[in-house]
C-alpha cells in the first residue's frame, strides 16, 4: 500500500482571505478556488498543499495542529511575517529558540531557529 500526502485542511471563516494570506506568506501558488475552498501549493504540480475550507464558526480553542517553519534568518522572517499581518502569541512556551505567531484567524505556527551547520 502506498499513501501520498496530498494536503492539510485548514478550517477558515474566510477561506479566500486566509488562503491568500498564506500564499503570500509562503510564496505559494493558488491552484483552486470556489466559494467554500481555497487551495495553495508550493508549485502547481507539487504536494503537499494547504486547502482552506469554509466553516461558520471562528476557532475557540487552542489548535491541535500547527505548522513549524525553519527559515534561513529567523529575525528577518519573524519581522516579515509580523509586517504581513501575523501576531505574536504566548501559548505557554516560555523562553525558547522558536517564535510562536498566529495568522489572521488565530492559527498558531512556529518560526524555528535557523539550522546550525553540522
UniProtKB/TrEMBL annotation:
Which CDD domains does this chain map to?
VOC (cd06587)
PROSITE patterns reported for this sequence: VOC (PS51819)
Classification via PANTHER family: CONSERVED PROTEIN, HYPOTHETICAL FUSION PROTEIN
Q: What is this protein called?
A: VOC family protein
User: What does UniProt list as this organism's lineage?
Assistant: Bacteria, Bacillati, Actinomycetota, Actinomycetes, Kitasatosporales
